[in-house]
Amino acid sequence: MPPPFPSAGGSRPGHFQRRNNDPFANIRRNHRIKVPQVRVISPEGKQLGILDTPKAVTLALEVGLDLVELAPNAQPPVCRIMDFGKYVYEEQKKHSHAKTTASKIKEIEFTARIELHDYQTKLRHAEEFLSHGNKVKLRLKFRGREMAHTEIGFGVIKRAVADLAGMGHPDAEPKLIARNVNVMLTPLPVNKRKPKFHIEPGADGA
């Protein structure tokens, strides 16, 4: 008599598949590399040519390292002799640094006809962000017919870049993208920062 319900995906009863969230788990290394031959790169980056896989694995293990498959779809697959644990650590560190850098970008928005007081307040905030080591994106949004006179907006942004020169430098020239003028500022080294609008607590000698 057939079972009352069809099995889901052909899995064994009571068997649960765990999702592996480790992005490095699928990288084959050492005895998990099943192809007969691989193209081998030394730890220093030199080409060692095509070797039988068992010989390449032995070569790596003899020097206390791993044979790691880097290009599985190549013919034959490309492997490198390396410290896999160190490789994983360095990749995770780079990924973490990229996320941290992205989270450190602050944005200051201007308008083409911004009032002086508002302008100075925004620059004060920009200087404060730069003083904390954050990159600052200056963005000016054109409204309505202001697009007919983009030079006004560019003038505001260039003036802001000049006023913030004591705290940060632009990564590139201001650019018009759609209805916005954008420019990214990177903070100067700590010993070269000279705030013009933002006064650090205690900096006035009080």
Question: Any overview of this molecule?
Answer:
This protein has 4 helices and 9 strands; from the N terminus they run ββαββαβαβαβββ. With 206 residues, it is of the alpha+beta class. The strands form 2 sheets. Strands 5, 6, 7, 8 and 9 form a 5-stranded mixed beta sheet that branches. The chain has a 4-stranded mixed beta sheet with strand order 2-1-4-3. A hairpin with a 6-residue loop joins β3 (66-71) and β4. It is elongated, with a radius of gyration of 29 Å. The N and C termini lie far apart (91 Å).
CATH class of the largest domain: Alpha Beta
Q: What's the helix-strand series? A: EEHEEHEHEHEEE
Q: Point out poorly predicted stretches.
A: 3-11, 201-206
User: What is the first-to-last residue Cα distance?
Assistant: 91 Å
Counting DSSP H or I runs of 4 or more residues, the number of helices is 4
Tell me the total number of β-strands: 9
Question: Strands, helices and their partners?
Answer:
Elements: E1 37-41, E2 47-52, H1 53-62, E3 66-71, E4 78-82, H2 84-103, E5 105-111, H3 116-131, E6 135-141, H4 150-163, E7 168-170, E8 175-177, E9 180-187
Parallel strand pairs: 1-4, 5-6
Antiparallel strand pairs: 1-2, 3-4, 6-9, 7-9, 8-9
Summary of the model, kept short:
By secondary structure, this protein is α+β, with helices and mostly antiparallel strands. It has 4 helices and 9 strands; from the N terminus they run ββαββαβαβαβββ.
